Amino acid sequence: MDDEEGIRSMLTMALEFLGHQVTAAATGRQALQAVTRYDPDLILLDVNLPDLNGFEVCRTLRDRGNAVPVLFLTGLGGVDDRVRGLDMGGDDFVTKPFELKEVAARVRALLRRAGGGHPDRNRLRAGAVQLDADAHQVWADGRPVDLTTTEFALLRYLMENPGRVLSRRQIQERVWNHRDEGSGVVDTYIYYLRRKLGEPGQSLIRTVRGVGYQLCAN
C-alpha cells in the first residue's frame, strides 16, 4: 500500500507479473479494510500514508492479533525510524528510492519465512493440473501450459479455493482488483483457461449456473 499512485501502480504490475495476487490501497484505513477482507500473506506498507501512517497501521494489526508479515517502504532512512518500525511489529524495510528486484527479493524472503510450517504453500495441485506460484509455471497432464498473468491469477484463485463455489463478482474483485471489466469478462477468461488446460480444464472447472464457478479437486 502506497499513497503515490505511480509507485502503487508500478509495484502492483511488477508483483502481479511475478505471480502474486495484489490488492492495492491508497490510505491507512483502506489498507486495514483490505486486510480484513482478503487476509493477505504479506503487506507492503508505505510509512507515509494519509490518515493513518504505516507505523499506526502495523500497530493496529498487531493489537488485533494479526501476525501477517509487514514490509515497510519508507523515505526515512534513519536508524531510529527503522527501530520504531520494528518495535511496532514490522518485519523488514526497503528505503526509497528502491529497485524493484530488491523489493521482490524481500517479498520472497518474508513469504518463505512466514510459510516455514507450510513449505508447499505456493505449489498447488488439483487433479492433473499443477501450479508453482514462485516459478510462475503451470502444468496439465505433465505438459507446460503458457498462461497470461490474468489467466494465471484466475487459476491460482480457483486452486486456492477447491470445492468452493465462487461467484463472478468474487472472482472479478480478486483477480481484477475491483476494476469493473464488464459482466462477461470472467466467463471469457474461464473459457480461455479451459481451452489452454485442455481436457483437465474441462473436468476441473465446473460451471454453477446462475452463480459462478467451482474447482473440483477430485
Automatic annotation (TrEMBL):
Organism, scientific name: Streptomyces akebiae
Keywords noted in UniProt: DNA-binding, Phosphoprotein
Modified sites of kind 4-aspartylphosphate: 46
CDD domains: REC_OmpR, trans_reg_C
Pfam families, per database record: Response_reg, Trans_reg_C
Domain of life: Bacteria
DNA-binding residue intervals: 121-217
Protein name (record): Response regulator transcription factor
Domain Response regulatory residues, every copy: 1-111
Domain OmpR/PhoB-type: 121-217
SMART domains listed in its UniProt record: REC, Trans_reg_C
